[in-house]
Amino acid sequence: MRWIDKLERKYGRYGIPNLMNGILIGQIAVWVIVIFINYQLYNVLTLDRAALLQGQVWRLVTFLFLPRLTGNMLLFAIEIYFYWWIGNALEQAWGDFRFLVYMLAGMLGAILSCLLTGQGDASGLFLSLFFAYAWMWPDQQVLLFFILPVKMKWLGWASAALWLVQFVQGNLSTKLTLVFGLAGFLLFFGAELLGWVKNSLRDAKRRRDWNNRFK
Fold first, then answer.
1. pLDDT per residue as tens digits for the range 179-215
2. How large is the average pLDDT for residues 172-176?
3. DSSP reduced 3-state for 143
4. What CA–CA distance (Å, rounded) separates 6 from 26?
5. Runs of H (alpha helix) within 12-72
6. HSE of 104, CA atoms in CB hemisphere, 13 A
7. C-alpha to C-alpha distance for 91 and 86, rounded to whole angstroms
8. Is 146 left (phi over 0), alpha (psi -120 to 50) or beta?
9. Reduced to 3 states, what is the DSSP secondary structure of residue 58?
10. Is 41:107 a contact under the CB 8 Å cutoff?
């Protein structure tokens, strides 16, 4: 990715160390406040076009700190743990600046969705972190729920299936949020993904032609 090499040489000093940790600490704080103290805080932090036009510009950033609301503390802790593990692995592999670029691309996608439909969130961006990790380390084995050994590529496919279900069932805002939230993944891996699709189609055609010779 020559383009990001040039950006990093010029602007690399603006990388934010431990960015994922900061985001997750914010999500934990928001979850505690919303669940146990004041639910209204959630509405103040969402990505909302009408509120943005009224000057509430903090929403351009604070939507990242909105966790998935669930009263089940165990499920919330597992989700935070997975994002911590995956986010920090990507940050260590890429460096602070590249990870920041990835996150900014997904944020801009969510903001664009908000401006077009009135609402937006970070769901597509956070799902794309799973895609990025699974793409880079497909054969790495993890313990799902700390019990079941599963390769990352299968978790990646499971995340893709979840993305598809949410896309099909969601309204226009949800659809655009999920699509534009993949901006970082496509920016970093779009060329590789296109090559993989082409090779897969070519191999499938080759196998089909081979089988047809013996029918």
1. 888 889 888 888 777 877 777 667 666 666 666 665 5
2. 86
3. strand
4. 31
5. 19-36, 40-45, 49-53, 59-62
6. 9
7. 9
8. left
9. coil
10. no
How confident is the model over 50-83, as pLDDT tens digits?
999 999 999 999 999 998 877 778 888 888 988 9
- The confidence score (pLDDT) of residue 108 equals 93
Residue ranges of the alpha helices (H) in the chain? 2-11, 19-36, 40-45, 49-53, 59-62, 73-94, 96-117, 123-136, 152-169, 172-180, 183-212
Q: CA-to-CA distance for 91 and 17, rounded, in angstroms?
A: 9
Q: Tell which residue, 171, 190, 4, has the closest CA to residue 99.
A: 4
Residues contacting 67, CB < 8 A, separation 6+: 27, 28, 30, 31, 76, 79, 80
pLDDT per position as a tens digit, 85-123: 999 999 999 999 999 999 999 999 999 999 999 988 998
Q: What is the pTM of this model?
A: 0.86
What's the distance, CA 202 to chain centroid? 29
How many residues comprise the chain? 215
Mean pLDDT throughout 121-140? 89
Q: From the CB of residue 56, how many other CB atoms can be counted at a distance below 10 Å?
A: 15
